Amino acid sequence: MEKEEMMNVSSEAVADQRSTFPVDGVESRKDADAANGDDSGQSEPSVRRKDMLKALEAVERDSIAIAESYSSLFASLRSSLSEATSSTVDHMNCFSDAAGRLQECVLDASTKGNRYINSCLRLNEEMKGIDALATQLYPFFILSFCCLCA
């Protein structure tokens, strides 16, 4: 029963299509001529039809120009993005190298700074003993200086 109903519906749809779309094209040509204002059956298109064709050509030219502009814009954007990406990668590599070298230099400088501080501390300890010796030798220094001057 359901199959029969489906067949009836599909046959009605086919019949509707045949009635709206003529096979021979005569009716559709008449409809197109009437829509364009060409009821008299003249061989040349009417002024209105010429104006429509000119407007259509202008729209088509403008559409092509716009499409070319967009194509050029997208190509330019793609190129700029590619350059920015590659330069960003180059900058990141350069930054990484510079950071690595800076880390090496900081490590080297801190090592040398620690050596310098340790040397200063050792010298300070040694100078404490020299101060006591200098106070002991001071009278002899003055005596020898006086002997040289005389």
TrEMBL record:
Residues 53-137 form the BLOC-1-related complex subunit 6 C-terminal helix domain. It holds the Pfam family BORCS6. Keywords: Initiation factor, Protein biosynthesis. InterPro entries: BORCS6_C (IPR046465). GO terms for molecular function: translation initiation factor activity. Residues 1-49 are annotated as: Disordered. This is Eukaryotic translation initiation factor 3A. It comes from Striga asiatica (Asiatic witchweed).
